[in-house]
Amino acid sequence: MTWHELRSRQFWRAMMAELLGTLVLVSAVLGASVPGLGEGPVGPLYPAIAVGVVIVAVAHCFGEISGAQVNPAVTLSLLATRRLDVLRAFVYIAAQCLGASLGTGALYLALPLKTTAEHFVNRVPLELNAAQALGIEVLCTFQLVFTVFSVEAQRRRESQEPGNLAIGFAHTAGVLIGGRFSGGSMNPARSLGPAIITGFWENHWVYWIGPVLGAILAGVSHEFFFSLSASRQKLVACLTCKDIEIVETASMTGSSLSTVTQNAIRAKQANKQENN
Prior knowledge:
mainly alpha; Glycerol uptake facilitator protein; Aquaporin_transptr
C-alpha cells in the first residue's frame, strides 16, 4: 500500500466499514447471549442463529467496501496468504477491536441489570482446561475461515453461489460446535470487547491464539493445497515475497509464467501512463 492509498477516501471508508460491521456483529451476538429478566442462562442456539444472520447482513452491507472481514483472525489469515498488505491489515484489526469494544460498551450501558454482563464473556468451562478450549477454537475457526476462502475463490471465478449465506452458516455451525465448550468465539475482537468492559481476562489468550492459529491453517491449506490455483510455485512465491497473482493467473489459464509476467508488466505500465 502506498502513502497515496492511505490518504484516499476509499481506504478510510473501508476502515469505517470494518469498525461499524464489527460493532453490529458483536452487539448482536452479545445481545442474543444475555438472558431476559427472570430467565435462566441462554444456550448456544440463540447466539448461533444471531451470528449467522448478522454476518449475512454485514457482508451484504460492507462486502464490496472492505470485504466485511469483521474478525482479526480472518484478517491475519489474509495477511498470511498475502491477500492483504501489512498496513491495511493493521488498520483493519485496530478498527475491528475498537468496534467490538464500542458495541460491547453500548450494550452494557443499555442493560437493566449490569450483573448480566457476565454472559458477554467467553470463558473456559470448569470441566475443560485451557488446552482443550484452545483446540475447540482452532477447530471452529478452521471450518469458518476455510469456508471464507472457498467463497472468495468462487467469487473470483464469477460464480453465482450465494456465498454470504455459506459464511453465515459456517459461523452458526462454529457456535453450535464450540458454544458449550469454549464459547465458540472464533473472533478475537468478539472476546476482547467484553474482556475490556467487564475486566475478566482469565484464559483470554485462548481466544486469540486459537482463532488466529485456526484461521492461518485454514487460509494456507486452502490457498496452497485445495484451491484450483494451488501449486508449488504459488507457495514458493508466497514464501519468497513474489507476486502471487502472476503465478495464480498462469496456473489458472495454463499460460507460461513468463507470458503472464510480461502481460502484467504491460498492464502496470499502461495504468501508470493513464494516471499520469
